[in-house]
Amino acid sequence: MATEARRTPDARPDAGAHEVLRDRMAAAAADLAARARALNDRRVEAFGGAGLELAGAARLDTGRPRVPCDAAAVGGALLLGANPPAGHGRPESVADVLTLHRLRVEDGGPPAFEPAGADAVPGLLDDPRLHRDVEELFRYYRHARLLRLRRTGPLLLAVFSIGERATDIRVLRWRAEDGGTVAYLDAKGERDHLDPTARSARAAQDVVWTPAAREDHVTGRHPHVAVDGGTLYVSTVGGALTVKTVNDTETAEGVHSEPVEDPLQALADAEIAHARVGPLVLLRVLPYNETVHRHLVFNTRTGEVLRLDGIGQACRRLPDDQGVVFPGGCYLADAPAGSAARTFEADTEGMEFEAEVRSPNGEDVLYVFHAPSRGRSLLLPYNLIRKEAAAPIPALGHALFDDGTLAVLGEAAGGEETAAHPVRLWNTPYALRPRAAGPAGDGPLARVGNAELVRGISDCLSVVRLAEGVTGWTARGAGGGGLPTAAALEAVTAACARAADRHHWLDAPGLAEELEGLGTPLRTLREAAEQAVAEYARVAELRERAAAAVEETAARTTALVRRVRGEAPGEAAGWVALLAELRRARGAVETLRELRHADPGRIDALGAELDEALAATGRRAAADLSRADAFDGVGAAVAELAERAAAAPTAAEADALGERIAGHADGLGAVTEVIGSLEVGDATVRTAVLERIGEATAAVNRARAVLEGRRRELLEAEGRAEFAAETALLGQAVTGALAAATTPDECDEQLGRLLVRLEDLESRFGAHEDFLARLAERREEIRETFAARRQARLDERARHAERLAVSAARVLETVARRCASLASAEEVAAHFAADPLVARIRATAEELRSLGDTARAEELTASLAAARQEADRALRDRVELGADGSGGAGTVRLGRHRFAVSTRPLEVTLVPHGDGLAFAVSGTGYRAAVRDPDFAATREFWDQPLVSESPHVYRAEHLAATVLADLPPDAAGTGDTDAESLLPLVRRAAETAYDEGYDRGVHDHDAAAILAQVLRLRAGAGLLRFTPRARAAAQLFWAYGADGAARAAWTVRARSLARARAAFGAHGALEPLAAELGRAAQQFLERAGLPAPSRPAAVGAYLAEELAFSGGRFAVGPAARALLDGFHASLGGAQSAPAEEFAEDLRALGGGSPGEPGRPAARHQLATAWLGAYAESAAREGREGREDGRDAAPSPDLPEAVAVALCGDALEHRDVDAPLTAVVTGLLGTHPRITGGALPLRLDEFLARTEEFRTVRVPAHRAYTRRRAELLGAERERLRLDAYVPRVLPAFVRNRLIDEVYLPLIGDNLAKQLGTAGEDRRTDSQGLLLLLSPPGYGKTTLMEYVAARLGLAFVRVDGPALGHRTTSLDPAAAPDATARREVEKINFALETGSDVLLHLDDVQHTSPELLQRFIPLCDAQRRLDGVRFSDGRPATYDLRGKRFAVCMTGNPFTESGARFRVPDMLANRADVWNLGDVLSGREELFALSHIENSLTANPVLAPLASRERADTELLVRLAGGDPTARPDRLSHPYAPAELEQVLGVLRGLLRVRRTVLAVNAAYIASASGDEAARTEPPFRLQGSYRDTGKLAGRLAPVMTEEEVEALIDDHYTAEARTLSAEAEANLLKLAELRGRMTREQERRWREVKEAFRARAARTGRAAGAAETVPEPIPQTVPEPTPQTVSGAAPEAEAAAGGAAL
């Protein structure tokens, strides 16, 4: 046993830690014991209980000598069974063996038994059948004798022996009922009486023995058998019965050992079995050649092994596996080692288990053991709470009466035969009928029950005993053994856990404290024990590590010492190495002492071993180094190193040589030190060795000097080259780091790496001052570069985050608009689950988080959740408030009125106003003229809504021209350029130009058709694609404005560039030349007075192309040629006199060439007049021939015809006969240019017109659009329209109070102000709504909700901002800027006129004069004077017939407690409602609204806000304990756990509501009271929806009633801090209202009221009115009646609700 304990690591904790934990455990155990005993005393007082005590002694007189064998209690009498002694005759009748006796107890006298007749208990001994059966029994069986009397269930058995065998019996039977009725049955009860063998088997079955099998054998040097899966290991080999707890076959030692009779036996020779009883393992072992089993008990909690052979006779489990009981003793599982077993000196021979009798209170158990062969019994009492067995009571027989009296039949003194038999009487708790019933009612003791209390107290006291065993260990032990074992501490931890798990009431909320709070010390004890176990584990780990380190060092030391002893180095270096290694090993051994829990003895032994080895090796080294040639090897090696150092090629090689030289120097120093420290007997030896060491040291110093000189030379040369390379690499690293630094964090990371690299370079080149200066410069450059890059990345990230947030806000608006059209909750859920826009918002939030903008991400997520809530609420409102109940958005019903819903958003637009434009708010009468002079210049675009279309350009034409501009110039008009093939190309272009208003399938179709025609015409037109005007200007310039040299140069350049274009596809090659030609032509034409085209670039482009194509032969179109031919024909031909006269006139005006241009402007005017007159004449003839009679358009070819006529002699011309016109048919769009789906098309005109539109008008229109958007945005910002869009708070809940009371009230008023929908609409709009209530009840929120549902602009005016000094609606008269802003809002609302709800909030802070200005709105005239917000001019607003409403809200009581008086004239005309007055009969709804309004404040209750309203009401009733409420009527399927959470929060919320309603009632009562009658300080704490919501948000399902009350305390304490001097009085009043005043508070409250009345008396104010104190709030929420769903008393809540507003 000692060996195994020594092999186990001594993992005891430090004494200091143990002291702390032990004291903590001891205190907790003492507390737990005291509480458990106190609870037990209460249990005994409540349920009754009695101990086992001796009541007295008495005698039984049988009249004749008898040998008693047994007794039984029947019908209140004692039935004695006795046999006549030998020599006194045979028994013949019932009276010879069975007699009845009555117990008589006189006052003050001893108890005594007196004989009773056979008929004392009817049916017992007076039955004739009994007498007959007994007489026959004795007649037929001469040796018959009574063995015993036995109760088994309702039967009473009398067992007679009739033979020599144990089975030769005859059994008489009676039925004994609980009421005392006895009836004899027969003499056939053998089957009811089990034979001894059967009873022994049954008794043995209480513990199940499991024999060991062959597979449990563990072989080895010392084999053993594994028991209980390896819990124990048992062996009977080696001459001893050994029990081990460790599977170690290398040793025979164990925790228990005892010798066996036969030492020569194998492992399989013994019979081994085990049984498990809780933490106990019972062993039954029969060694080889032995006849009696040995029985042992092993306690897994304490590690104790004890031999108890008594369990082999009859072993029974104690209740709850507290241990085992056996004849003569017991073993307790939870008791400390050494005190767990208790045995008594008693005769237990042949004892078998007979019966188990439990007391009614469950605390006591009586175990009855019986020896059938000897007729003896042993009674063993056991107490479950104290967990102790009393001394056993031996008996010849015993009888237990119904009242618990136990009569024990004893043996006469000396065993003599006598007629007086001793009986001891005991008072016991084993009453068959309890003397007292359990406690009445439903108190905590009754709810738990006596039996459960007994078990719980018993388990707690078991924990105490285990803890006392641990905390008292030090007193029993000594030294280290005074600390408890880990197993003992683990047993305490396990016992605490078992007790807590078995008995829920130890920690049950609301129950544990009423039952002495056993859970608290139990939890403390468990935590302390767990800490102690953890300390054990920590120490064990440290000890194992220390032991491993010591053993590892010991192994190295042993190997080193062995090697040193066997080596003999031939030179000094070898000896130095050996000695140095020994010294290092010695130092390593010394460091082991620093390890905690290391074995100091083992360390000392290792140190001594190394010291001896050092001394021996030193002596050997001194003897060897005294030789003359001992250091020759060192000298030669150093000389060689010196030669190599002088010729070292690099500094790195020099450093390596330096290390070798230093090694020799260190070796010599070590030898010197060793020799100096050795105790050498011969001094000459020491001197000789030191002299040789000095010579060798001198050689080393010379080598060092050579090496240092060479190294300095090499470093100077190599350093500069290396620095240049390193700086180059540093530059590359900086470039790479800048490329990798894509975020601010990466910039910091890369900069840090570069700075580390710079520091490394500084350390390497620190010897060079110039290098350090250059590195410092680079450091600053790198810092500045990365600072700039980091700032750029920060700016980029901020811009990106801003773009994301703005985009997400727009998407969120789109999502909200889409939700307005969803028709069911399923569609809303599907939309927010799968819609791409919603997914985009979530993705944007995640991206913002990744950018570090968590605040915006959270705001976006919250906004999305709010949008979801608003969608659900809006859908629910549309369904429930819709006039037809269908959820349509057309009308909304408020009470009994239907109202039209305006769905137009509040937007700023531009509308015509006079001769200009004006800002307008959509759907209203607001107009404000635009006074921006720059914007007036864009008048031509005011009537052009689309950038792609004007009266002169069809948008499909613009689209076709845009696509044409992107096509190559040589794109053909045939083949794959038909309309069908061009449609995809056109459609792609239309899709990218999303702002140009193309309708898919219409304008793309038309554009493709137009483009196909244009391409076809362009393919044959050549240069005729340029307009006649451009071609005419080019001819005039080329003929009169360019000399020959310029012409030649421009021609060469044009032709060359054209060839380059053809060779390389450079389509823009001619553009510079074209621009140059255009500028030159423009300058000439303007200088010469000739008509200049609006776009000179077209002239240059045509001229460049003409020069490149023909070299100066200008193309003439067929129309121009026809015009000239017709002109000449009309004159009679080219040779006719009129024609000659025309030519002569032109010549008379001069020249016709560049050298002599003459007067070109006059010549051009003349030619234009002639040709124009002809063209007009031809046009008139054409008009007369037209069927429609319309004027023909002027000929566009006239400028070209004029130019050809003027330049005919100066230029060469070529006629080009190509079609330029076509009609595009089948068009689907509409435009003034389209007639019957057909669009006339002329190529040159189309190209010029669309080119100018595309390059000039479209950019100008886009600039106009941008300016227009800027003006609208600025005006919207000035008007602050976003502030007037009503937004319903996410926490708003439309409850029953709102539906059934407030909305009908508001609807009645708005029906007068706005007018209702339908034919019954009033035409005389009038009225004003004034709502009054204390603050915090949601008046403003309600009106904003109404405005949102009606689609009205909500203009909220802040009353406190207006103040009492604002009396006019003129902003200029406002007293300050804040008031001016509020007055401007009023005027804006009045000017807007329609679809507006003007809301004046907190009007009690405003001037009555200002309020009276709204009186005209109450009458049919509906006119009000004010100042226009748009231009600041006075105006009279006429609101008749307009959807305009005014609502005022306020608190009827000011902050000082005075009542707010509404101006009389306003009160007489407006609808003034004090919301508290409209609650008559609706008090329950008001109370319920506090619950409904606070749902969204608590995460557990928040889902209820979007579910069926009836569910909320039913849940409130369930939480209030309404017996008629049933959870199966809930429409939503709540899981039990979810339902319990909801109800838990609602229970707390009901308590909160009771306080809030009471506070509200007290606030109103105080504020509305007469100051002269006040007898206590004013009560200013408020109880509103706001207070309920704040408290609801902090409620948790697991809160107890006291925790909820503490939460209310904290809330109102914080609220009272704002009241300064009145805080104490208000808190005292609150405590009075809640009924939670302590005596000290009551005393203080009286003092405060007395002081208040005294001050009132001094100031002359009367204080004699009777004080009204509201009834305190009950501390427990009563179960409501079915009529009150709020959980409060109907009268109290009715009073609170009726005065709430």
TrEMBL record:
Ranges for domain ATPase AAA-type core: 1329-1365
Domain called DUF7902: residue spans: 629-713
SUPFAM superfamilies in the cross-refs: P-loop containing nucleoside triphosphate hydrolases (SSF52540)
Keywords: Coiled coil
Listed name of the protein: ATPase family associated with various cellular activities (AAA)
Feature: compositional bias, Pro residues: 1671-1681
Organism expressing this protein natively: Streptomyces radiopugnans
UniProt keyword annotation of Coiled coil present: yes
Coiled-coil ranges (or none): 857-884
MF (Gene Ontology): ATP binding; ATP hydrolysis activity
DUF3686 domain residues: 31-469
Domain of life: Bacteria
Organism lineage: Bacteria, Bacillati, Actinomycetota, Actinomycetes, Kitasatosporales
UniProt biased composition (Basic and acidic residues): 1178-1191
Annotated stretches, region: Disordered: 1177-1197, 1657-1701
Ranges of Low complexity composition bias in the record: 1657-1670, 1682-1701
